[in-house]
Amino acid sequence: MHFAFICLPAAGHVNPTLPVAAELVRRGHRVTYATSAKYAEAVESAGAAFFESGEDLAAQFPRSGSPAEGGGAASPRAGMLAGLASGMMSGLLERLLERAREEFPALLAVLAADRPDAVCYDAMTLAGKMVAMKLALPDIALLPSYATNEHFSMRELMPARAPEEMLAAWKQVRRLIDDFAAEQGLDHFNFMEGPPASLNICFIPREFQPAGDTFDASFHFVGPCLGQRAIEEAWQPGRKDRPLLFISLGTTPLNDRPDFFRMCLEAFAGTPWQVAMAIGDRIGMSELGEIPDNVDARAFFPQLDVLRHADVFLSHTGMNSTMEALYFGVPLVAFPLQPEQEANARRVEDLGLGRRLPAEALSPTLIRTVIAQVSDDQEIRRNLGTMSQRVRGAGGPAAAVDAIEHYLHRESPQA
């Protein structure tokens, strides 16, 4: 069979889907994978045919320059992050719409000429759902975060009151999206809302999904799909006799926090901790000042290799990073930067898998204290042991492809 993958060009969305594409190829299927040029090499390494569509989203946003401490009492960190995230989200959706207008006709033409048996699309890709509807193809949603049904919505994990500017921006962009869909002859198009896809592949275990037991058979919770990332190299800690702390705030435009990273350097300088700190590609090493001997600071690390050795993970708790930490049984200390990450941090705490850094009065001493407490917490270790078994037992890429093949053979027995 031939599958079209259409994915939002962001690491947290591409990374979990590539092992699924690779497993389809391994089983003799053909995959056409549409995303930005940044991921072309990784797509081709998975055995899929690359089709350029979209752009590197992180590059579209300027540096935030926001203080890690939250800007004082008049501007609490939660409100600041909500405002930044609302601006990012509206800008992201506007840019997605702009690019869809430019690129959707070409993508549609390619897939109409080489018609796939199904469209597997990231839930945040505007073009994915539209292609499936336009060509009347089986629709398979790829969900890198929480699933939604009549019993649970992501809104339940968000702050009780969304900023008015976020709601206004969302309504405006939704009107523009509806207009674009209508131009394509899709009068009942519901972007990121409405009924679920015919098949939904969720890259978290059912035990991490709120109200997980209420989702029907069209939802398959296969857990994280790790695979072997072509752009990463093997990594080993410099010292095997010291505890390892991994620090990373992910690849989002909000992760450029030199003040936060400087706090971490001060917190762990001269301590027994061995620190691997990923600062991203938007911060220069010169902004950090002197790097202590026990700290290895780089733009990026091969995250899976580091987590195999880590004792604690100080993370933004993006869903990909959260799932990878749980896979390896690494306790989390959360420093979320966006509303979805705030929701993940809350879920981590509720399940006893780690703690979050307090939003206010952040200091090197506080960071060091929380890391030490989480590292020594035996209840967190026990909870992680159980959750790690659930994550590893969810099935990963093989379970995802089993579900896809079963669904398509059920719908088209002659396939």
TL;DR?
The chain has 415 residues and is an alpha/beta fold. The protein has helices at 11-26, 40-45, 77-113, 126-134, 164-183, 258-268, 303-307, 319-327, 339-350, 364-376, 378-393, 396-411; strands at 2-6, 30-35, 49-52, 118-122, 139-143, 199-202, 219-221, 244-248, 274-278, 295-298, 312-315, 332-334, 354-356.
What are the defining features of this structure?
415 residues, alpha/beta, Rossmann fold, 2 domains, seven-stranded parallel beta sheet, 12 helices, 13 strands, 41% helix
Write the layout of secondary structure elements.
Layout: E1 2-6, H1 11-26, E2 30-35, H2 40-45, E3 49-52, H3 77-113, E4 118-122, H4 126-134, E5 139-143, H5 164-183, E6 199-202, E7 219-221, E8 244-248, H6 258-268, E9 274-278, E10 295-298, H7 303-307, E11 312-315, H8 319-327, E12 332-334, H9 339-350, E13 354-356, H10 364-376, H11 378-393, H12 396-411
Parallel strand pairs: 1-2, 1-4, 2-3, 4-5, 5-6, 6-7, 8-9, 8-11, 9-10, 11-12, 12-13
Helix pairs in contact: 1-12, 3-4, 3-5, 6-10
Can you describe this structure?
The protein is an alpha/beta fold. It folds into two domains: 2-223 and 394-411, Rossmann fold (3-Layer(aba) Sandwich); 244-393, Rossmann fold, CATH 3.40.50. The chain has twelve helices and 13 strands. It has helices spanning 11-26, 40-45, 77-113, 126-134, 164-183, 258-268, 303-307, 319-327, 339-350, 364-376, 378-393, 396-411, and strands at 2-6, 30-35, 49-52, 118-122, 139-143, 199-202, 219-221, 244-248, 274-278, 295-298, 312-315, 332-334, 354-356. The chain has a seven-stranded parallel β-sheet, sandwiched between helices. The protein has a six-stranded parallel β-sheet with strand order 10-9-8-11-12-13, with helices on both faces. Strand 1 (2-6), helix 1 and strand 2 (30-35) form a beta-alpha-beta unit. The longest helix is centred in the N-terminal third of the chain and has 37 residues, at 77-113. The protein is globular and about 65 Å long. The relative contact order is 0.13.
